[in-house]
Design goal:
Length: 121
């Protein structure tokens, strides 16, 4: 299953979660996991949402991912403002090598990739 991670940081105001989740729903995505936090000292809002296409067999190619980011760029400026930050990354988890050891059974090595993509090698 191809899934994506959306992260947002902006000044807090009412309706951010509703507008983001509506955007994802309207574009055919299903939310797998979501969390948000408001820093009361700075009034900054942070959100992390994992999502995928509603039909599990559908994958976004490179052009479709660029269009999603472009469409969301317009929406996030409407929701939060032009100065705020967001990112949409494809979640990639690959098991490339499994090492059996007598003490633990399986040893998995984790490496952080560019832009926060986690790959198991």
């Amino acid at each position: 299953m191809q899934s994506f991670i959306l992260t947002i940081s902006c000044k807090d105001k009412p309706g951010i979660v509703a507008k983001v989740t509506k955007f994802l729903f309207d574009n055919g995505f299903n939310i797998l996991e979501s969390g948000q936090f408001n820093d009361k000292d700075t009034n900054n809002f942070f959100m992390r949402t994992e999502f995928h296409k509603q039909e599990n067999n559908l994958f976004l190619n490179h052009e479709e991912l660029i269009k999603l980011k472009s469409d969301f760029d317009v929406k996030i400026k409407e929701i939060c403002g032009a100065k705020d930050k967001y990112n949409i990354l494809e979640k990639k988890i690959e098991v490339l090598d499994i090492d059996e050891t007598p003490a633990y059974g399986l040893e998995t090595k984790v490496q952080l990739g560019i832009n926060g993509v986690v790959e198991c090698i």
